[in-house]
Write a structure and sequence with these properties.
This protein is α/β, with parallel strands linked by helices. It is 50% helix and 14% strand.
């Protein structure tokens, strides 16, 4: 006795179900494959957004752009953008809005902790649609000391110094100043690192919002027999404060840090640090 063939309707239902299942599997596989980068290609890295303070002095913006060119030379494939806290365009919120939901690491072009680093930049980042991470400020760091030393040497700081000359020599590290005590802590740390490099006392002083002033620091050093005093400009770019501090130098004054390779390397170092922190958090989640 032979088995009867299934009705045609049941066969069609069976075939339709199989086709639906295969289509569903294919769709799921296609969706997963879209999440995988093509062989030999890595996902684009998060953009680096350099956050500058902003200045009415046009030389400041020129310096920041030149520094960005240095960063591009060191890492050409990295998406690089600029945003200002105030006074210059593009403003940081506009830069972040243009990025949409793309990931970005914000690197403050600031030399220590303070209100802008702790409040302004994180608040602007939180209000943006972009997925952002805020890196540490540039200072303190040995690369900043390299940049300061280079600028002092360019201004005439001697490569060698005898003991007698050293006893009458000192440096005032002239910074912008902040009411935040962490900012002063960071500046003092940089001053100690620079003193270790130069072998003479380095006294931090400020153009505003903190003490001592540059004038006070110069008087204090003179009272200790230190009359051969250089002003080390602890500013990222030219501006009113940097000019005012340099004008008080009894001996020589260095230029602001500017678009040095050491500065570009430090920016990328802060970017990489922030990236490593993000990857660590994802791995441990």
């Amino acid at each position: 006795m032979t088995a009867s063939n299934p009705p045609r309707d049941e066969s069609r239902i069976h075939l339709d179900s199989t086709a639906h299942l295969m289509n569903s599997i294919s769709s799921q596989l296609a969706g997963r494959l879209r999440l995988v980068s093509p062989i030999g290609r890595r996902p684009a890295p998060p953009a680096l957004v350099l956050v500058a303070h902003g200045s009415r002095d046009p030389r400041a913006l020129d310096t920041v752009r030149a520094l960005m060119d240095r960063v591009r030379e060191l890492r050409p494939a990295l998406p690089l953008h600029l945003g200002h806290i105030e006074l210059n365009e593009p403003l940081l919120p506009d830069t972040l809005a243009a990025l949409g939901c793309a990931p970005a690491v914000l690197v403050p072009l600031l030399l220590g902790r303070g209100y802008h680093v702790k409040q302004d930049i994180p608040e602007m980042a939180a209000a943006a649609p972009a997925r952002t991470r805020v890196a540490a400020p540039l200072g303190p760091h040995p690369l900043l000391v390299d940049a300061l030393h280079t600028r002092l040497t360019e201004a005439g700081w001697p490569t060698t110094m005898d003991a007698t000359t050293r006893r009458s020599t000192a440096v005032v590290l002239a910074a912008a100043g902040s009411r935040d005590p962490d900012s002063a802590t960071d500046t003092r740390r940089t001053a100690r690192l620079l003193a270790d490099r130069l072998g003479v006392p380095v006294i931090p002083a400020y153009a505003s919002a903190a003490t001592p002033t540059v004038e006070t620091a110069l008087h204090a050093l003179a009272a200790r027999g230190r009359h051969r005093v250089a002003i080390a400009s602890y500013f990222t770019a030219p501006g009113r404060f940097a000019t005012q501090c340099a004008e008080q130098a009894p001996w020589l004054a260095s230029a602001p840090l500017g678009a040095q390779e050491a500065m570009a390397r430090l920016i990328l170092h802060r970017y990489d640090q922030a990236q490593a922190g993000a990857e660590t958090e994802l791995a441990s989640a």
